[in-house]
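Q: Can someone sanity-check these two? First one:
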Amino acid sequence: MNEDKHLYMVVHPNHALIASQLDPERFAKHYTQGSTRYFEGRLIFVELDPDFRHPYFHIDKAYEELKAHEDGRPKATKFISSYRTMEHVDFSALGDLYYCNSLGDYVNLKAADYDPKMRGDEMRIILEINPIKMMVLTKYNFLQYADYITDPDMPKGAPKMFYAQLEFNVDDFLKEFQENPFIRCFVPGIHPARLREAILEVRSKPGKNVKGLSLDCPVDRISYKFLRHGFMFASHGNAKFYPLLSVEDVERNYYKFWKNM
């Protein structure tokens, strides 16, 4: 592997395949602070196998043009694609995932098998991040949702999806709402009464497994500590899971990120 050639797939805030001479830490700093393209919110990207190739991408051409500046500074970004990027990337080429704040501090997550025994609930709130951005309430578990949203016959899905799950318990929320209808909803952009109505609708209608909550995904306004399980790359019949680190592990190993989590 040539250490001066890195291949990154950005999945938030934009969609892009990028060649770079920067390692992941410096790439995160550049993308969030050293560029006029992006200033606040979250940055989520994955480092790909630099030997990955697909006819849709002109990767070799980008590598040829990936040269340091005249003053010796490394070339930070050479954009290869900004359209239908994830759709043409093989999951086998995905390496570590980096979840970054606006300061460029990050948590490094590694892929692992999804444990179906993870805590199950009656319903979940899914954060669809790429290529479609939505927030939905669903009865499907984290892995079942992968097949649902990437089904070729699903008009609201896509061939490949990247999503996460919000920390949420239906019964706890309904109890709190009953005790205080004026509670401040922890879900950005969703009024508590609207969330309650969505829950009751899914409960009362047989066969209804999904209810849209928002036409946007407010991942920029959601703290890492309010995420559950991890991040999922999904295609029909295939998935790649990146489990979250515990908050204690984040504090111990990624203290700068933890301070602004």
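And here is the second, same format, sequence then tokens:
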Amino acid sequence: MILFLINNMNNEDKNTENKSYNFINILLRSAMSFVGIAVLSMGAVFLQKAGLGMDPFTAMNIGFSNSLHMPLGTFQLMMNAVLFIIIFIFDRKQIGIGTILNMVLVGYEIQWFSNIYDILIHINLNPFVMIVDVVAGLLLFSLGTSLYMSLSLGSAPYDAIAPIISSHVNLKYKYIRSLQDIVFMVIALMGHGAVGIITIVVAFFAGPLINYWNTHISQQLVYHIKHFSTHPTAKNAGSGIVGLGKVSLMVITRAYEQTTYVKQHLSGYSDQELFDVLKHSEESLNRNEYLRKDLISRISSIKGEIKRRNLNN
């Protein structure tokens, strides 16, 4: 009887731990999704201000909302609602918190950030400004997309359409998605939407940039969220922040080093430059070694925790 009660207490503790883990995990992932959508929306605004096109769906919504004299947020929400109904009927597994956040927020956030842009930036559009807007827009748009897609909290309504069609007509997803983007680009053109060269870039060539953010930022964030959700302590929170900071610093440092290398490689090295390259390489090696030790320590801690739980069970 005593053993039975102890087992019940252990099961209740585990259930409580699981509920706590799920709540914290979903809460943090939802917050990250919210941030990702905000970053995506900021990127869309920079692309809009560059005047060289936006993603097909937003381009279409801007065109028709302007023609109908409706706020972009309201029109985009209406379009998303139509797509949401289709998803709900044919594949509701794709619906999640991220779906709702994306569906409701993106259009309105583009409006808000566009107003902020107009208030803060008073520069006439010229080639230099266009380039800056495009670069900032692509980086932010792809980063935001990576953040919310990495969380597995549901697909954006527009992104869910191609998988549904693909599963029903037995054609490869990439062909369906390409056709979907082309159709929406044509509709956007008909509605005098924000279609341009960047529309094609975002639709067909943003994948590598999104994958880059997935590897260097988003997956790291998801890992730290899971780790913190399992053991929600101040120490783990600090470890996650520090870990993300290290990764971000490493990404920036590597990008800088590679850029410098390319520039110098074209013109040759002086003796001093060779010593500098050697120094930078050694520093990079030390950083990688530090990261390796950090990962080994983390793996050891995880194995220890698994062993402890197995002994308790």
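A (reply): Looked at the second one. Residues 1-17, 262-267 have pLDDT under 50 and may be disordered. The chain has two domains: 2-214, 233-312.
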